[in-house]
Amino acid sequence: xxIHAAAALLPGGWERDVTLVVADGLLVSxxxxxxxxxxxxxxxxxxxxxxxxxxxxxxxxxxxxxxWRGAGRDSFWTWREMMYRFALQLDPEGMEAxxxxxxxxxxxxxxxxxxxxxxxxxxxxxxxxxxxAEMSRRIFAATEATGIALTHLPVFYAHGGFGGAxxxxxxRRFVQDVDGFDRLMEACAASLHxxxxxxxxxxxSLRAATPEQIRRLAQVWPGRPFHIHIxxxxxxxxxxxGHCGARPVxxxxxxxxxxxxxxxxxxxxxxxxxxxxxAASGAVVGLCPLTEANLGDGTFPxxxxxAVGGRFGIGTDSNVSISVxxxxxxxxYSQRLAHQARNICATSxxxxxxxxxxxxxxxxxxxxxxxxxxAPGAGADLVALRDPLGLDDTGSLLDRWIFGAGVTVADVWxxxxxxxxxxxxxxxxxxxxxxxxxxxxxx
Length: 443
Ligand SMILES: [Zn+2]
Prior knowledge:
With 443 residues, this protein is of the alpha/beta class. The chain has 14 helices and 17 strands. The radius of gyration is 21 Å and the shape is globular.
């Protein structure tokens, strides 16, 4: 397959009239300054596909259904009760249908890889399914049906709070011991068969896994993407100080082998020392700015983190809204509101380009994905943008896309498959129909 782009964002910057040859899911050649041939697929502006480094796909099923003020103060913790109620009802078919919906929306948004932080393991009564990977397989089926690449992150979840507290009834579908988790990992490793798929793991949080369990997981499953929720809520920081005598990130840095394969999800509440320690470790911070805003988590200190060379990627987390541009825009706007200034995340040049290229690199690192570049040998994960005004100004194109000046996603290829054309996924209608049925049964 040959694609001809009027402009393409190559590792050295924008180039004109670029021909890309794709075979077996990879870019074979990338040639700027070349003429289009009659059978080429022609696009306006081509950029690499974005990895989505943090998602709980099933949560797409109640997007927009928790924005209703109840009696008393609503918070992350009241939202979590609603999420548990939804999670407790979901059957494997519903999981597959809703996950496929989320994957379609991710691809249409310009995400080409899903990092699925997957903790809904057992049957609604809390007993394991006969196949420990039953619910994981539903995620695999959704990614195969939609074509998005997958980095699957089975979650280890053993406790209901700090200090090894017993799990609650609402957590019964998530919890297992270390042997059960090893069986799940082995079952997942045996059934992920597409060449683009990866397997990592995720101790859920310092609330749900003890220090000994986290260290054991890092020893038994070395060298794989290793993700953990951390320091998302102020209450979590207080509880951690009470139990461990240290803040969550401070404790993690002192007690766990945090390195480049680690991804610290949220890391919202940080001291200057914690900011520096994460950056020095080479770990990626997984920012989910739309969910963090939706849940009232707080504001990540992006300016300080980027100033010391910190790496980040973006995730859609609760999937309340699935949007590459929305996440990057919210990240930048949260900083502008906090600092009462403009263009915070870039120290010079286009803010959109700085945000987009940093999130590509961080996301690929966190998900063990191929290099997110338009270059020979890289994965053919491609997003074609369309500018309805035809301004022919590549220098501002990513800013005009991210900050909402009418630029849209036209075409998307993941691992070489042409999945989105004219802004629509090729299986959109069928998958939306099945998801609507599943969601109606649940609400
Ligand atoms: Zn999460």
